[in-house]
Amino acid sequence: MRRLGLLAAAGTVALMLGIAVPARALIVFDPNNYVQNVLTAARELQQINNQITSLQNEAQMLINQAKNLASLPYSSLQQLQSSIQRTQQLLAQAQRIAYDVQQIDHAFSTNYTPATSSQSDQLLIANAQSRWQNSYTATQDALRVQAGIVGNLDTNRVQTSALVSSSQGAIGALQATQAGNQLLALNAQQLADLTAVVTAQGRAQSLEAAQHAAAQDQGREQLRRFLTPGQGYQSSNVQMFH
């Protein structure tokens, strides 16, 4: 019994004195340091997320810029130019008195001058025939221009439909602008056709009016010659063209 008591006492002393344990085997937890580390990691993660968002925004901006700078794949320029050229060709094919100031001045200084006693019967007849032919061909020219404009209507309809579709399907500012500009060009071409029709019709009406005015003047001269002694037989061959 005494021996057991000694062993118990020795054990107690040993526990009181402690047994040496290596320092590296101990784990020390610092709550404050842990919280700081978590906050630092969270801030770094937020910065990374911000950088990613910024890069995404820049990429989207570049994509939008590329769309805005994308050219419209459809162009009606060739068709519009062809329509305008057809109308110009019809106007350029005007017969006899063309759309030229010098030709008009020359015609009115010869065929449309007031009839005088110095003009021969043959000249009066030739001028009357020339004026009638001018009016006749001008009417024909006006009808040909009108027919050409009517022929352009179907082309204009197709181009209008295609341009409106392109405008509605535009993916960027440049495409929308180009589609709008082409629609304006189409409107300008249609206005040019309308101007051509009005011009051709006005030319025919003007020559017709000039013909009637010259015919009335020539009729008065014919009457004067008929009533003038010695000229009645000569004037009997003069023809009036209305």
Largest sheet: none
The low-confidence runs, each spanning 5 or more residues with pLDDT under 50, are 13-17, 233-240
Quaternary status of these chains? Answer: single chain
- Helix-residue proportion: over 70%
* Mean pLDDT across every amino acid position: 82
Net shape: rod-shaped
* Counted beta strands: 0
| Contiguous helical run count | 7
**SSE string, helix = H, strand = E?**
HHHHHHH
- Report Rg: 51 Å
- Look at the helices and sheets and give the structural class: mainly alpha
Percentage of residues in strands: under 5%
Q: First CA to last CA: what distance? A: 165 Å
What does this entry show, briefly?
With 242 residues, this protein is mainly α. Helices cover 77% and strands 0% of the residues. The protein has helices at 2-17, 31-68, 77-92, 101-110, 121-168, 173-227, 232-235.
Q: If you had to describe this structure to a student in words, what would you say it looks like?
A:
It is built from 7 helices and no strands. The radius of gyration is 51 Å and the shape is rod-shaped. The termini are far apart. It has 242 residues and is an all-alpha fold. It has helices at residues 2-17, 31-68, 77-92, 101-110, 121-168, 173-227, 232-235. 77% of the residues lie in helices and 0% in strands. The model is unreliable at 13-17 and 233-240 (pLDDT under 50).
